[in-house]
Amino acid sequence: MQTHSLAERPDLVDAFWSIEGDWPRFMLQDPTSDRAYEAAVTGFPQLHLVVMDGDRAVARLHAVPFGHAVDELPARGWDAAMQEAEWILAKGGAPDLTTISLIEARVAVDRRGHGLSGPLLAEARRRYAELGCRDLVAPVRPTRKSVEPRTPAWEYAQRVGGDGLPDDPWLRVHARLGGRIVALSPASMTIPGSLDQWREWTGLPFDADGTVEVEGGLTPVHVDLANDHAVYVEPNVWVHHNLR
Hints:
Strand content: 25-35%
Radius of gyration: 18 Å
Largest sheet: 9 strands, mixed
Shape: globular
Number of strands: 9
Order of helices and strands: EHHEEHEHEHHEHEEE
Number of helices: 7
Distance between the termini: 28 Å
Low-confidence stretches: none
């Protein structure tokens, strides 16, 4: 298997996009992502990696330039990183790659559990350091947090095993490569919608005020019947990789 950036291999853009995910439908409704995700791939090809097994793409990694200090990481993690990428592209010119934020690492569904995520993250660390990155940050979406959506996100993130590494598998991958949990991103992604939209996205009735657990959600959805809307606010966990 070989890893390429889209700057090196612009002919692999279609392969990059060919890797299907299995996120819940509601997770594909983030307004910031709708606006900025594809533009970031086009605008920062050197930060987008694709792993090829022969002529098939089996994993990809998406990242953007980021202008925040490690001790001032924003509460709106994922959305803030994507929005900042929009601003950088709008201003034009060469981006400052001193700090980079990971956005998503995706492994083809039939290749999960084959040990691809760790090597992909390690390769990203190496390549970004060569580009001049000193701080690599990530608003990490913990893999198994959706199993217990009412557990406070920071409490969940602080759980460790007997080896001192995080219990959560994706946080564990980061920690094994030197990543350090530094903060909570309590409003990393915000997904609003009408009640009818949420019914369509989830198949649930959304017929009572309060909170509703949805499959795949890291936290419950807030429902407001009188104003005909529901809002999902996802917490992520800021992880820092020191590439100095």
